[in-house]
Write a structure and sequence with these properties.
The complex is a heterodimer of chains A (about 400) and B (about 140).
Chain A (H helix, E strand, L loop, with lengths): L3 H7 L6 E2 L2 E2 L1 E2 L10 H14 L9 H20 L8 E4 L2 H11 L9 E5 L8 H10 L2 E5 L9 H7 L4 E7 L11 H11 L2 E5 L11 H4 L3 E5 L10 E5 L1 H6 L10 E4 L4 E3 L13 H17 L1 H19 L5 E4 L8 E6 L4 H10 L2 E2 L1 E3 L4 H7 L4 E5 L6 H18 L1
Chain B lengths: L3 H13 L4 H14 L13 E3 L4 E9 L2 E8 L2 H14 L4 H6 L3 H5 L14 H19 L1
Antiparallel strand pairs in B: 1-2, 2-3
Classes of the chains: A alpha/beta (about 400), B alpha+beta (about 140).
């Protein structure tokens, strides 16, 4: 079991009030909160060793470089990446996806097919649409079912020798469904297609081993896993990263520059143009330490308990429907109440101190599938409690009473 | 004809009777529920203002020298605020609408609903009201 009282004390924000009520933070799928350990390292960086990395001979620059590279090593170990240079620091998941989509422009041609799933976040749809527009490749969609799962019957047929790339989120942000990534990767291998997994929603709950998965690309954001915003990583197999052209030009990513020709630096620097989010990268490493110290197995078990409890309690409210009822899901409950608009429910529960997300969650195709304008999404983290779920349930009941 | 300023002061007075947010919101929800805001035939794509969170439909017509607004929303709290805004701006001369502001929304404690980042369609609705007033003003001259 995890020591919930001790954990909650690590997060200063959890003791604040919102609209005069104790904060109940259930918008963890949008961004997670930050423990004091991570806040401390951010302060320490700016107080003691703020300097640009990889280029100064002075001591401060060396300290910052060492700390940044140490973070890369922690991330490597966490995801069981084979080579450290296969970890590219990015500004976040969206940046990582765009980097790959842009790179594939020169590797994809007309007639090729690109597969995405119906459960994607807009950030894992739009870059591929843009890629297809640039190259003339065809975008195909793996359909979903009423349960909010990918349609396994349909998806086998979609993989053909024309399929060159497959993009799926490991976990759906809107519904919490854990996708059958092993099967998808296996199918893709059969036809020789590359696979990119959007791990933004999975990484806070599931420790992915990229070598066991044998996945080509995996992208995550630090701010969903107790780290700061504006930093994330792209994991890519070395062979792919060497094949892809650089995404942005600038300092740090070059080997030799003349006006006639520039030769690029090796991995990972080829993809890390400009001064990166140094402090963010270091803090990301500390956030991973923090979560690993608690243990991902324990985190997953505890969050599952919250999911089961929350599902059971919310379903007691008459007229409440949960979207995404897969047996395989993270602690996300996306719901509506018959006859009520999610925006209204979200507004009232906020007045009662409960932070939930409302709307289409940047996943309009899912909302179109269910023919709804959006949902109310409560997403739990390991620092949440059953008592907080009780507050959510009471708040939703109150909203229902006021709005009906 | 009552001036926009007077109407807005009336609304502020009404809201000042409430002791807490819950009463304010209950009143607003009632306003949203009770007003037949727009003719179904006007709930069309051209009149739709898309917000990320909720939708607003706004229709405007010129009646002699005054602009008559009708509107609706798919979310009831948004609709309540729509009702308040319509009450304040409808049946007024274009120039009066152009000159008016929406500070009264802050005074009645609903400021967050008129935030540009709220994406509920209300900020765009106020802009659209002003645009209609400008267009009709040009037409009248």
């Amino acid at each position: 079991m995890i020591d919930i009282d001790k954990i909650r004390k690590d997060f200063p924000i959890l003791s604040r009030k919102v609209n005069g009520k104790p904060l109940v933070y259930f918008d963890n799928a949008a961004t997670s909160q930050t423990p004091q350990q991570v806040i401390d390292v951010i302060v320490d960086y700016y107080q003691n060793y703020n300097a640009n990395i990889h280029r100064g001979v002075h001591s401060l620059s060396q300290e910052a470089t060492d700390a940044y590279e140490e973070a890369r090593e922690k991330i490597r170990a966490h995801f069981n990446v084979k080579h450290k240079e296969e970890i590219i620091f990015t500004a976040g998941t969206t940046h990582g996806i765009n980097l790959v989509a842009n790179g594939f422009s020169s590797l994809i041609k007309k007639g090729d097919e690109v597969l995405v799933s119906a459960l994607e976040h807009h950030s894992n749809i739009v870059p591929w649409q843009m890629l297809c527009e640039r190259t003339g490749a065809k975008l195909k969609v793996i359909p979903m079912t009423q349960e909010g799962e990918l349609d396994k019957l349909a998806f086998a047929e979609l993989f053909t020798e024309k399929t060159k790339l497959v993009f799926v989120n490991h976990v759906s942000n809107a519904l919490g469904t854990i996708n059958p990534i092993k099967e998808i990767i296996a199918k893709a291998k059969e036809v020789g297609a590359a696979v990119l997994l959007d791990g933004a929603q999975a990484a806070p709950h599931i420790k992915a081993d990229v070598q066991v998965l044998d996945v080509d690309f995996y992208v995550v954001s630090a701010h969903k896993m107790c780290g700061p915003t504006g930093v994330g990583i792209l994991y890519g197999k070395k062979d792919w990263l060497e094949k892809l052209p650089p995404y942005q030009g600038g300092g740090e990513m070059i080997d030799q520059v003349t006006f006639e020709k520039t030769t690029y630096a090796g991995l990972p620097h080829k993809f890390e143009a400009g001064t990166p989010n140094i402090c963010g990268g270091i803090a990301f490493g500390v956030a991973l330490d923090y979560m690993n110290e608690i243990g991902f197995d324990k985190i997953a078990a505890y969050e599952h308990e919250l999911l089961v409890y929350g599902t059971q309690e919310l379903l007691k409210i008459e007229g409440l429907r949960i979207y995404g009822t897969s047996a395989e899901k993270t602690a996300v409950i996306s719901f509506n109440i018959e006859g009520l608009h999610p925006y209204d429910i979200g507004t009232i529960v906020d007045k009662l101190g409960v932070a939930v997300r409302t709307g289409h969650h940047c996943a309009q195709p899912i909302m179109d599938y269910y023919k709804i304008p959006g949902t109310v999404r409560a997403s739990f983290s390991f620092y949440n409690t059953k008592e907080e779920i009780d507050v959510l349930v009471e708040s939703v009941k109150k909203a229902k009473m006021m709005l009906s | 004809m009552e001036s926009i300023k007077n109407i807005q002061e009336e609304i502020v007075d009404e809201f000042s009777m409430f002791e807490d947010w819950m009463q304010r919101y209950e009143y607003m929800i009632d306003l949203g529920k009770s007003l037949p805001l727009i003719d179904e035939s006007h709930k069309i794509e051209e009149n739709l203002i898309k917000g990320c969170q909720s939708k607003v439909w706004l229709n405007a017509e010129l009646n002699d020298d005054k602009v008559v607004f009708t509107a609706d929303s798919d979310a009831i709290i948004t609709k309540g605020i729509v009702a308040i805004l319509i009450r304040s701006f409808t049946n007024q001369k274009p120039q009066a609408i152009i000159d008016a502001d929406t500070h009264f929304i802050d005074e009645i404690g609903l400021k967050e609903h008129l935030s540009p980042t709220r994406a509920n369609g209300l900020v765009s609705m106020v802009k659209q009201i002003k645009m209609y007033a400008l267009a009709y003003q040009a037409k009248l001259n």
